[in-house]
Design a protein that fits this description.
single chain, 5 strands, alpha+beta
Length: 105
């Protein structure tokens, strides 16, 4: 018996794919990424949003977060899917620590 909603699994996969695409961009491409970067997507006939947040840290490091929201089907509230990483000017990519995800709820 399946207990995990299929739409939620699909949605999380979409957020993770956006993160993988962003990891392939250069530091300069990420730095110049457009400021308004929220898209509305449909997942299993349900509307959801996926936003990209890019924050400069030190002079040579960016924090990139992909944040998705989709309304819960039977309960009030929303499901959240997050992916995040740090990109340095030299091209290295480091995962974002788990505790930092709580800043984006």
């Amino acid at each position: 018996m399946r207990t995990f909603p299929r739409y939620l699994s699909t949605f999380r996969r979409m957020v993770n794919e956006r993160g993988q695409q962003l990891r392939r961009l250069t530091f300069e491409e990420l730095k110049d990424f457009p400021g308004d970067n929220t898209e509305v997507v449909t997942v299993d006939s349900r509307l959801a949003t996926i936003s990209v947040i890019i924050q400069p840290r030190e002079a040579d490091r960016l924090r990139v977060v992909v944040q998705g929201f989709i309304r819960a089907r039977f309960l009030p509230g929303k499901h959240v899917a997050l992916d995040g990483f740090y990109k340095r000017q030299d091209g290295t990519v480091n995962p974002m620590p788990e505790d930092e995800y709580y800043e984006f709820d």
